[in-house]
């Protein structure tokens, strides 16, 4: 006998269960490119009040989810279809993996009822994603959808954060089940705190090392921002009078001009310090695999991931845990001592400041150069002078962004974004999209190489469509110049133009064609006025700046891959 309609159990579809799980995690936007396998998720998002931002390439969706996580401190989410939709997103997931950025990629999949039958866009997604995620799985039944989504978010925060991946077969996603049979985790009740304060004995040992150090320095890495340990890091360097260098997302921890903020004397400090504290940065290629640190210095490494501590280089002390909590504990432990070493380090800071000043003054003529084509140092100098305390700066490129790393100093914490150690080009528009969506009151400025912009630049139209104004600056040398330098250095100038030369593209016209603001700049005196007009336009903007193709950043010329 059929059950009367008014007493039938309330049912819910798999797509709506996804949306409920996203809402429980605090997700307020998904970045996506549509496909038949995933549309029920959109329907659920509409009911749950989750914005659907549809882009033109799945790589952009994944990069935007990564960028959203970096800006907000919450995990990002991208949703793509099966097969090529998921493979297009692989680069964005891989970038988040190397950058320790928590995000969830949801991919479609053919129906379970058609498993191994050759359904449309069927691929072994989980097998492909497993090496570049912290968790990858197939959702086996509609009842488990929300449960496994929450599981994937939980796994994002195991140790150092990172991405997770789920594929959801089409019949699992589209089917409806009684709500009473579906496990729907409740917000705030399926994840524990991940903040680890570190071994107390190790923290005491660090305090002792600081008390006796004559010439300490600290490198604040991306995990300082990831853990939102900015205030604790500031208290640490100021209370104990320790010079600080910053890389990755930690740039901006200290404002420019702060007496403990250093940028250009890092090599000198690493060579001459007696105590070097590395916080939230692995000994990877950016650190010369640890070889750039003085062999006679005492080295301390603090990291969220046990596997990173002591990797590639021996250390004297390793502490696993939350950067902010550990720095706060070390500050308290050292400050309670009769002599914590802070006073006697005055001369050390003066020594480093002299090195810093000399390096700045040596480079200043190029930063003020009136040369045409424009010296890249002049371009990044103008950008640095243009930034406000509310400007989020994004670097997306090779050689031109290497220039900016020496000059551009964000004025607030969390206001620097770059790809991270994977070195992925094409993140710029996606990061700008995420930053402007998450922080609409912030100004967003992105410096692109022309090669980098070309990879994902069509999503400039998405910025126009969603009314997400930002200031894009393209350092245009019609080349993949970082690679060009290496080829010329290895094979000679006569083979320096093989496979790396681009057309002279008017990106300013491209911007105007898509409904944005566009300008071309050839005279360095016109850079600042063009930046001002882009700011005033209230539109997505591209300023196409023609820079000298025969000038290379020192960082480009020093890369070991070319030697």
From TrEMBL:
Residue stretches making up the Thiamine pyrophosphate enzyme central domain: 203-329
Chain ranges of the Thiamine pyrophosphate enzyme TPP-binding domain: 396-545
CC cofactor: Mg(2+); thiamine diphosphate
Keyword annotations: Metal-binding, Thiamine pyrophosphate
Organism superkingdom: Bacteria
Domain Thiamine pyrophosphate enzyme N-terminal TPP-binding: start-end pairs: 13-122
Family statement drawn from the similarity comment of this UniProt entry: Belongs to the TPP enzyme family.
PANTHER family in the cross-refs: 2-HYDROXYACYL-COA LYASE 2, THIAMINE PYROPHOSPHATE ENZYMES
Protein name in UniProt: Thiamine pyrophosphate-binding protein
